[in-house]
Design a protein that fits this description.
mainly alpha, 3-stranded antiparallel β-sheet
């Protein structure tokens, strides 16, 4: 990866793209440090620390800690991600959007992008309203609860989220690419120095044995190796194209393959499963604390995000969402029809329904393996964090979701740089 970046830096055009991407990330980090007015950030941070196991804690991790500081970019890029997921799901459910995506060409893509932008602003407005009322209903967080203060806070959050969406699009056009992912990547990475400092301080003070720190680092490295290995893993189904004659020329007869990625749904199943599985704990956190030893106290402990029941439900939901996204993204019937239309077939299977049934069986096996992999990556850090918290008294705060996003974005960025270099170093047929 270092060698790829070094070669890319030697190409003037790619150097400008890298510098532009770095400028976007610097602007993002500056905005993540500018707090909106009328908010007591110390009280807000204390409140969100107590809500770390809820959806609010997930938002804080994805925003790189900006959510707990109520900065201009506190909402982060989450409204755009949520809007993109919703529009993607609606294209399957609404025929008009599906036709716009498949048959509209560039004009259809622009219309879908415009719908996604407007949806992002609407979602950011709803989330900003909810965030404001959370701060208003908790005493001493807001230093001014007038209508003017509410308007300034909500507009600042919505404007910050919309500006991040624009920055991501500019990074796609003038930078390396993957602008939205790069911003999410920068937010997660920004928490690493604070986590490393906390572990180092705990080791020096004697609260944590140095062996636990070494085990934590080795565990994270093994997790990264697993993610890198599975990220590019795919099952290739052989495809043969029949020969056909058009005029005096013979076409076809080549052998190809149909690639099926093991983890074709990415990190989305983990994000969805984590958001939904933590809803009961989030609702319980807003309710008055029940009496110790009562039924409701036992129920809240059972649905807590560190309980065994939560981990089991979380794992099962990851598997369910993995199958759901695989079904949306890969349609065996459509693939079978495309192969038949182009004169292709899978050796040993007749075109049509036998081919689609075979592809569906392979898809089911691949999806199961990818879902189990996602479940392991998401559950193991939680179990390790719970064990270290009980034995060493420290929480690392490393989530499988964050590791998958960071590693995935790094691999995509390196691949994008390599593709750009191949395009520029290819000399063509004529000297």
């Amino acid at each position: 990866m270092i060698q790829t970046v070094r070669k890319a830096w030697g190409i003037p055009e790619l150097r400008k793209k890298i510098l532009f991407t770095l400028l976007v990330l610097v602007i993002y980090r500056i905005g993540s440090a500018i707090a909106v007015p009328y908010v007591n950030t110390d009280m807000l941070e204390q409140y969100l620390d107590s809500m770390g196991t809820t959806i609010l804690g997930l938002y804080n991790v994805m925003s790189g800690g900006a959510f707990a500081q109520a900065t201009v970019f506190a909402m982060g890029i989450q409204p755009y991600i949520n809007s993109s997921i919703i529009i993607q799901l609606l294209t399957v459910a609404i025929p008009a959007l599906e036709r716009m995506q498949k048959e509209g060409g560039e004009e259809g893509k622009r219309k879908l992008q415009s719908i996604t932008r407007y949806s992002t602003v609407a979602i950011a407005l709803l989330q900003a309203l909810g965030y404001y009322f959370i701060m208003k209903n908790n005493y001493n967080i807001l230093t001014n609860d007038s209508i003017w203060a509410a308007l300034v806070i909500i507009v600042s959050f919505v404007a910050g989220s919309s500006f991040l969406m624009w920055l991501g699009e500019q990074c796609n056009e003038f930078g390396v690419g993957n602008g939205i992912s790069m911003i999410l990547f920068a937010g997660i990475i920004s928490r690493v120095p604070a986590m490393a400092s906390a572990v180092y301080s705990s080791v020096l003070s004697g609260n944590m044995h140095w062996l636990w720190a070494v085990l934590a680092v080795v565990g994270v490295l093994l997790l990264v190796v697993l993610i890198v290995f599975v990220n590019d893993a795919e099952r290739r189904i052989p495809v043969q194209y029949a020969k056909r004659q058009q005029g005096r020329k013979m076409y076809g007869g080549q052998s190809s393959s149909l690639p099926m990625k093991v983890n074709m749904s990415g990190v989305l199943p983990v994000i969805f499963a984590q958001s939904i599985a933590s809803i009961p704990a989030t609702i319980g956190a807003f309710l008055p604390a029940p009496a110790e030893g009562s039924f409701w106290a036992g129920l809240l402990n059972a649905i807590d995000t560190k309980s065994v029941l939560y981990l089991v439900i979380y794992f099962l939901m990851i598997i369910g969402f993995s199958y759901f996204y695989a079904t949306i993204q890969f349609n065996p019937i459509e693939i079978s029809n495309n192969l038949k239309r182009n004169g292709g077939f899978i050796p040993g299977f007749r075109p049509g329904k036998p081919t689609s049934d075979f592809i569906a069986r392979v898809l089911g096996k691949i999806t199961l393996f990818g879902a189990i992999y996602l479940g392991i990556v998401a559950i193991v850090p939680l179990v390790a964090d719970k064990f270290m918290n009980s034995s060493a008294g420290i929480s690392l705060g490393i989530g499988g979701t964050s590791v998958i996003i960071v590693v995935g974005v790094a691999l995509e960025t390196v691949q994008a740089l390599e593709n750009q270099m191949v395009m520029r170093q290819y000399k063509g047929f004529l000297e």
